[in-house]
Amino acid sequence: MTIRALPLLACLLTLVACDDMNDQPRYDDYEESSLFSDGKALQHPPEGTVSRSGPVEIAALQTRPPMDRALLERGKERYAIFCVPCHDPAGYGNGRIPSRGFPAPPSFHSERLRNVDPRHIVDVITDGYGVMYSYAGRVPPRDRWAIAAYVKALQLSQDAPERLLSAEDRQKLAEARP
Ligand code: HEC
């Protein structure tokens, strides 16, 4: 065998080794097993285990945290990570992912979405909506509320009544008007 053939041989050996991995011993859920004293492969979780989808998570989903600066800052950060790729930083739905062919999300600034309760946004993050998949596995309940609060703030930012502006901003607006 020439030295040149050695890398090829190494590759082939690796492939053979990989093939063995397809056929490893494992248990199916309800199979018998001599590993545990009750003879079952599937074991109860240890006492005191708290389920991630149990009462704690449900309570956190039902309790709307008080709106404060810290919640909004958290929501802004999480929104940037999980939602901006599709919904874009201002919430018009012109993110990078739709620009590459994923169905375009609706703008958060439509009449209908401007009027939704924050709970609807929490529900969309939890369950998904149409072609948008659920973010429940990546965004814990409190963060869902934080993101919902931030989306409401984004909506206000694009549709603020004039009376909410500072005197200085109102002045600038008046000057900018033709
Ligand atoms: C991969 C792209 C993508 C990401 C990321 C994404 N969305 Fe969406 N979202 C969509 C699409 C597409 C729709 C429209 C779905 C439909 O109508 O079938 C949508 C719809 C929505 C709606 C409107 C629901 C309604 O009542 O019409 C809300 C609210 C929303 N998304 C919130 C979020 C939030 C909050 C995040 C971040 C946690 C997020 N989305 C992340 C793609 C995305």
From TrEMBL:
It holds the Pfam family Cytochrome_CBB3. PROSITE patterns: CYTC, PROKAR_LIPOPROTEIN. It comes from the Bacteria. SUPFAM superfamilies: Cytochrome c (SSF46626). InterPro entries: Cyt_c-like_dom (IPR009056), Cyt_c-like_dom_sf (IPR036909). Residues 70-155 form the Cytochrome c domain. GO terms for molecular function: electron transfer activity; heme binding; metal ion binding. Residues 32-52 are annotated as: Disordered. Signal peptide: none annotated. This is Cytochrome c oxidase subunit III. It comes from Martelella mediterranea DSM 17316.
